[in-house]
Amino acid sequence: MTVYFIGAGPGAADLITVRGMKLLQTVPLVLYAGSLVPQEMLGWCRPDAEIVDTAGLDLDQQMEHYRRAKANGWDVARLHSGDPALYGATAEQMRRLKALDMDYQIVPGVSSYSAAAAALGSELTKPGVAQTVILTRSEGRASPMPAGEDLDSLAAHGTTLCLFLSGAKLKQTVDTLLRHYGPDAPVALVRRATWPDQTIHRGTLGRLLDEVDGKDWRLTTLLLVGPVLAEDSGGDSRLYAADYVHAFRGKGDDDGA
């Protein structure tokens, strides 16, 4: 048997990968976080699948379902919101699966940061503006930030920054970002990206706290900040310039370089 950690994507049921969808259509046991994964996603499951909402289960209780699946020779789909590689709480599950000599595979998914960028109609890297994207999160009770990863240190780079779980500490976050990006820096809040009730607010750092009510953005909110969010920022990439020669367009060297 195999446990498949499947990225369910940011919310919309059709943003799961084809591989993830096909696995849901075949496995007899599906575990999913009901607090984060929409019910519509379960429409891909086979009709007779056993579906377990893990939102109210601790890790030991979840492992009992894996043990039961192994005893029955069942494959398992473990649905995680977004992409399992980011804030997925998958590492501890995989460690325990290894200890039980149980196979697992990871099926990547669409992260909420890329879904948020799509909702904003923005590219997060632009020539001459930003070529680096920092993905980080606000510190919380479940996972304190390691040394050197505090927001003040990361914001000092001044590049595109995507901050997960930022709504609960919005004022503190904005105060920190202002020191590095300045009051005119473009900023966006995206709550529940791709869900039917998706909400977006765009503005500048200096005015953000006056324009929104923090309590409306406490949960499932991503904050994006950086000069790339300005629609008129950046020039054209050289990649498609008429005089830019490479192996697939124009005259190249004999070796194709």
From TrEMBL:
GO terms for biological process: cobalamin biosynthetic process; methylation. Transmembrane segments: none annotated. Pathway: Cofactor biosynthesis; adenosylcobalamin biosynthesis. Keywords: Cobalamin biosynthesis, Methyltransferase, Transferase. This is Precorrin-4 C(11)-methyltransferase. It comes from the Bacteria. NCBIfam families: cobM_cbiF. Belongs to the precorrin methyltransferase family.
